[in-house]
Specification:
Number of helices of chain B: 17
CATH topology of the largest domain in chain B: ABC transporter involved in vitamin B12 uptake, BtuC
Shape of chain B: globular
Distance between the termini of chain B: 26 Å
Order of helices and strands of chain A: HHHHEEHHHHHHHH
Helix content of chain A: over 70%
Low-confidence stretches of chain B: none
Mean pLDDT of chain B: 85
Structural class of chain B: mainly alpha
Oligomer: heterodimer
Shape of chain A: globular
Largest sheet of chain A: 2 strands, antiparallel
Strand content of chain B: under 5%
Number of domains of chain B: 2
Number of helices of chain A: 12
Strand content of chain A: under 5%
CATH class of the largest domain in chain B: Mainly Alpha
Strand order of the largest sheet of chain A: 1-2
Strand order of the largest sheet of chain B: 1-2
Helix content of chain B: over 70%
Number of domains of chain A: 1
Low-confidence stretches of chain A: none
CATH architecture of the largest domain in chain B: Orthogonal Bundle
Order of helices and strands of chain B: HHHHHHEHHHHEHHHHHHEEH
Radius of gyration of chain A: 19 Å
Number of strands of chain B: 4
Distance between the termini of chain A: 43 Å
Structural class of chain A: mainly alpha
């Protein structure tokens, strides 16, 4: 029971982090039709910026500054890169972000080196939050959940209750009409792309010190987010939520369990393959994903 | 028309045959051999992206798994378990690639477009994780090594010397190019184009788009497997790197740089890519950054790749107007050289400061300077900015001259 509860909490906090990433990706995809291949690289940038800022002025300013910086980079990328490629279609846009991921990864290699940096949980949040039977549950895990849930509510409110949110939703389906009504649709797209990048950056700030901040972190988490988006159904925010929690729990439990499987392999050794296996099985039995709307 | 075709294929064969006699160093021979097998790989990739409209992020799976099967077959032959000519080993790799193409293609080709791209990425990651999970068969991180000299030499061919391996690769390369070109002329090749351009209409004509994509992927994975088999003979080792996302990304970059809309584009791309990887990685650790930058610039400014840039000039060559572009090209080249020098200065200094221990003194292009000094930084940034500004002017001058020449040619034609 104790084992189950601890793992479930860990799985949910990891799943929520995955959702912070996949929600930004899904939003940008459903609004602009662009699959941002560099999304995980923005996550990594967030972690590195947070490391840099927190060594100078502290963790709390970093929590605000790092996502803003990453968002600004995202907007610049949209304005001076993506917008130029837009006329060549979605494949060109995808390829552009693919190349961008290479560039960001290499820039991180160049600036911060090839080994992990010492980005740590701040002392205020270091310690046990509560005890489950005999094991302590760290405050930072709780903080991660808090930030992700707060972010979710903020996005949902911004998209449904504010004027800019309504313009964004309208620009998704009827860009010409929205433009005719006097809104600057390219600027809306720039904001959306920058916002998606900032969300990834925020995930980087709180994920970078919970796990490890190293140049391989983008390549490690990137495919998992893409799988999450496919499993949830392309462009479905609710689907991404369910899939994130599902994959988060699946991986956390699998890593912790030592059940013997076939060929002398243990379940914990097969854990890295499970999300992909889930994706393959889902595609065979339900090609549109958990909550995907249309076949395409 | 026919003599033109003979001329083209004849020249290709002659270039392949003559290349090692023109570039005689052993380093050049290694490069040429790698280029040959990568050309097959890139062309097989373009069967998906260029002809079928399928953007795959996991194509290395088919060449890599083909290479693994080939390396085990070669090892079994070495033990005397069965007799098979090494010359035909790529066929084993190809068939193995095809089997995995049938297996994974059934899943990946269920969706098209962006979803296909993501699924291919997921399958690629899955295979990579599996390869590390079964070290008994795949050899873990170190990989499986082999010896390509098996059995008695046949007509003096043992594949011991590198030149014999080069000719093996060259022959397979020419045959594969011809076969893949022939495939584009078949009804399946044409239908793949139709499914790429307008899947809905293709379905109304009565074709199952999923089936067309599936068949195209299976054929493409055969050629990917052939290239895997050749690289297994060439390097005598197959490791997890052969199925990695880095390799899948590499073939995508090479194919795109060469030119996706043209059949011969990936050939150019493969040659340039191997040159980039092998030659540049010896000089600088930041080669991947330069390659990525080059790729991004190509995506923004030349989505048709190098092939489209070359083909743009053919009408001018015919009208004997190419000389009119010499001046703008010269200016653009000068401006790019300035910008590139500044960029290289900045990148190498950043790299030197972050990675190299032991002083901030560094050498670049025969110059020795302190990577911490303000002068070095100022000069590099100044070069970069000046180069970019100059490039801007050169580009607009080029565009002006280009449209003027186009107008002149139209005037002459009408």
């Amino acid at each position: 029971m104790e084992f189950f509860l601890v793992q479930a909490l860990n799985g949910i906090s990891y799943g929520l982090l995955l959702f912070m990433l996949s929600s930004g990706l899904t939003l940008v995809f459903s609004l602009m039709g662009v699959l941002n291949f560099a999304h995980a690289s923005f996550y990594m940038l967030g972690a590195y910026f947070a490391f840099q800022v927190s060594t100078r002025i502290g963790f709390w300013p970093a929590l605000v500054l790092a996502p803003i910086l990453v968002g600004a980079i995202g907007m610049l990328v949209e304005r001076f890169g993506l917008r130029k490629v837009h006329r060549f279609g979605h494949v060109a846009e995808l390829l552009f972000t693919f190349g961008l991921a290479y560039l960001i990864d290499e820039a991180v290699h160049l600036i911060w080196g090839r080994s992990a940096v010492d980005y740590r949980v701040p002392p205020d949040l270091d310690g046990p939050l509560f005890a489950i039977f005999t094991s302590q549950y760290p405050i930072y895990r709780g903080f991660m959940m808090l930030v992700s849930v707060a972010m979710l509510i903020a996005i949902w409110l911004a998209l449904t209750r504010t004027r800019i949110g309504l313009v964004i939703q309208a620009a998704l389906t009827h860009p010409q009409t929205v433009e005719a009504l006097g809104h600057n649709v390219p600027r809306v797209f720039m904001l959306v792309f920058g916002g998606g990048a900032a969300l990834a950056g925020l995930a980087g700030v709180i994920g970078g010190n919970a796990f490890v901040t190293e140049p391989g972190m983008a390549a490690a988490v990137g495919p998992i987010i893409f799988v999450t988006v496919v499993v949830g159904g392309m462009g479905s925010l609710a689907g991404a939520f369910v899939a994130s929690l599902l994959i988060g729990c699946l991986q956390t439990f699998a890593v912790a369990l030592d059940w013997p499987l076939f060929f002398g392999l243990k379940l914990s050794q097969v854990a890295p393959v499970l999300p992909y296996l889930l994706m393959v099985l889902l595609l065979i039995f339900r090609p549109k994903g958990l909550m995907g709307r249309r076949e395409g | 028309m026919n003599w033109k075709r003979f001329f083209l294929w004849g020249t290709t064969a002659i270039v392949f045959a003559a290349a090692p006699h023109v570039f005689t160093s052993s380093f050049a021979l290694t490069l040429l051999t790698q280029m040959g097998s990568f050309i097959i790989f890139a062309l097989s990739y373009n069967m998906l992206l260029g002809q079928g409209g399928m953007l795959s992020f996991g194509h290395a799976v088919y060449s890599g798994l083909g290479a693994y099967i080939a390396v085990h077959a070669l090892n079994l032959m070495g033990k005397g378990a069965f007799v098979f000519p090494v010359t035909l080993l790529p066929l084993i790799g190809g068939l193995a690639g095809m089997v995995f193409g049938v297996l994974f293609g059934y899943v990946t080709t269920r969706r098209a477009g962006t979803t296909f791209a993501l699924i291919s990425l997921g399958v690629g990651e899955m295979v990579f994780a599996c390869v590390l999970m079964f070290p008994g068969f795949f050899g873990g991180e170190a990989g499986v090594s082999t010896n390509r000299v098996v059995g008695k030499p046949f007509l003096g061919i043992s594949y011991g010397p590198a030149i014999q391996v080069y000719y093996l690769v060259a022959v397979w390369c020419v045959i594969s190019i011809a076969a893949m070109y022939a495939l584009t002329q078949t009804p399946l090749g044409r239908m793949a184009n139709a499914v790429r351009d307008n899947p809905e209409r293709a379905e109304f004509v009565g074709y199952d788009t999923q089936k067309v994509r599936f068949l195209q992927l299976v054929l493409s994975s055969f050629f990917a497997g052939v290239s895997g088999g050749l690289s297994c003979i060439n390097f005598e080792i197959v490791s997890a790197e052969n199925v990695s996302a880095l390799r899948s990304g590499g073939v995508l970059i090479a194919t795109f740089i060469g030119g996706v809309p043209f059949f011969f584009g990936p050939i150019l791309g493969a040659i340039l890519f191997i040159f980039f990887v092998a030659a540049l990685s010896g000089f600088t650790k930041a080669w991947l950054l330069y390659l990525g930058l080059f790729f991004v610039l190509m995506v923004i400014y030349a989505p048709g790749g190098l092939a489209s840039l070359l083909l743009m000039h053919i009408p001018l060559l015919r009208a004997r107007r190419l000389g009119r572009l010499a001046l703008p090209y010269l200016l653009a080249a000068g401006a790019s050289a300035l910008a590139l020098a500044g960029l290289i200065g900045v990148v190498e200094m950043v790299y030197h400061l972050s990675e190299v221990s032991g002083g901030t003194m560094m050498a670049l292009a025969g110059l020795e300077f302190d990577a911490h000094s303000h002068t070095a930084w100022a000069i590099s940034i100044l070069l970069l900015v000046a180069g970019l500004v100059a490039l801007r002017f050169a580009a607009s001058f080029f565009a002006q001259r280009w449209s003027a020449v186009q107008l002149e040619m139209q005037g002459r034609a009408s």
